[in-house]
Amino acid sequence: MAVDLEPLDTAEWFETVQPGVLSLELPPPDTDYCFAATRLLSWFPVVNENGATFFNEDVTNEMLDNAVGTLANLRHDKADVIGTIHKVARTDQGLEIIVRIDREAASLQGMDAEDMRAGNYFSHVSVELTRDTPKSKYYLVDDEYNVKYEIPTLAARKQGLRRTTDADPYRFQGCRVVERVAPKRFTGVGFVPNPADPNAELYALHANKGAQEKPKLADYDKAKHPYGPPSEVHYADPGDRDGKSRYPVDTPEHTASAARFFGNPSNRERYSPEQRAHIDNEIRQAKKKFGIGHETAADHADPGYDGGPMRHPLHTEDDVKRAKNHFNNLPNRSDYTKDQLRDIDGRIDDAMKHLNISDDDVKASYPDYYAEVSSTANDQKEHSMTETEAKALQDRVAVLESEAATLKSEKEKASTEASAANDKIVALEKELADVKAERDTLVAEHEKASREARAEAILKEFEAIKPAKDEAEKASLRELAFKACDDEGIIREVKLTRENEALKEEVAALKTPPVNETEAEKAAREEKEKASRGAVTPATPQYTPANVSVTRALASL
Asked: What is the phi/psi pair of residue 300, to 5°?
């Protein structure tokens, strides 16, 4: 993949202050990669600043072969990958390696070759490995590092021994304490400013650009395919999750980085089990293609939580069955948190789906697994469990598993009952809401009917005093009667008004003499008119906000 970057360094070659014996030949650099040679670790009697030392006979050729292709990073930060181990060689002094540095990755980390010169920030390396604890030993040595006593690691730890370091000048029986670390596998290397082994300093760097720039790739969507178009770069995730391609596996560096990053639980949980199985398979195929034999977090049920070693590999069908059976044993789960166990179970289940392994296959393959574990523990002197105790522990595990199954069944039953009760509550709440709505409708209808009956009664009272002259007046009186339902003052005012109007009409009638009226009838009429005139009492409306509209209505009658 061609990149537009400034050269990592213009110097073709440089040597450190203490170059050592360079037994490996540096390959020529190109536009994508440059190469650095360095000591990886030193043999005893060299002891590093952490009080650890290594022996030539503890490192097998298979370990060296598997080290090729492992990651090189900055400061042991797995996110700052800049390349891979290209070659490894054994010398009389220790191990030498050549690191192939990806120019693009290094530039993205803000690193250049000047940082790698003697005395500068990344001029040393620090080995990353997993140890074989049962084979490791502790030595008591004098100040000239002559071995006085040899103590097995487990016994030394029980005794409370710790390493003698530059920061901790610890002594036991007057001797320095040195740990002989037996590597199990080399998992990578980190460029650091302060290595444990001061001899692990860069010997040389071959970094000039050398070859001409490669032709640029055709235009493509860099947001969706950040490492190049799918026609040029193969991605383990071609964009199944959200359309963006991830985890390129087109080069050894990209493949190793993909395996490392996809081994992170927070990255794996973003995918479905089927997608995880596909990505795992793509990464495995790429590792096989490039001859990357080292193990990564994605290959293990336990990826190395809290900086611990990776455990329980998932490479083969037997590996997966053994890991599944191991974590079916409840005591083996006690060292992990709930979140870690959830991640472990997910990794094992993904591997079982990929290899088409069932639970019955696991039980059939390892019927005596717990006894095997107890036997191994006895051989390592980490436990002193008898066969009777192992059988009792296995029986106890069976009881606990039975109790767990019972609790699970009860939980499912309770969950079903709770769900049914919840459905019933929802139905009752709906029924109650319907009843309330019906009640509110009936109450409204009843209030309306009561108000209409009351208004009709008031209207009859008004017409009893003075009947309406026509339908228009009767409609106005009915409107007043509805308003008077809530105000007794309106009723009194309307009644008084209609009484006065009735008396006025009567007086007017008395003033009009009938035809052929006699003198006696005239005198009686005038007397009656005089009496009626004194009985008329003008209505005094109460001008309040509540009855202004009533007064106006009365005035229009």
From this structure: -130, 145
pLDDT score at 434: 92
CATH placement of domain 1-131+185-216: 3.20.16.10
50-80 confidence digits (pLDDT tens): 889 999 999 998 888 888 878 888 877 665 7
Which two tokens mark 446? 């009843």
Task: Say if CB 275 and CB 265 are below 8 A apart.
Answer: no
Q: In degrees rounded to 5, what are phi and psi of residue 218? A: -65, 160
How far apart are the C-alpha atoms of 229 and 235, rounded to whole Å?
Answer: 10
Q: The tokens of 133 are what?
A: 């604890």
d(CA 154, CA 382): 8
Task: Give dist(CA 151, CA 141) in Å, integer.
Answer: 11
CA distance linking residue 546 with residue 557, whole number of Å: 19
Cis peptide before 195 (omega within 30 of 0): no
Distance in angstroms (rounded) separating the CA atoms of residues 78 and 70: 12
Domains of the chain by residue range:
1-131+185-216, 137-180, 270-404
**Residues 203-221: tens digit of each pLDDT:** 777 666 554 444 555 567 8
Token representation of residue 335: 């060292």
Contact 296, 260 (CB under 8 A): yes
How many whole angstroms separate alpha carbon 62 and alpha carbon 87?
A: 13
Q: d(Cα 497, Cα 465) in Å, to the nearest integer?
A: 10
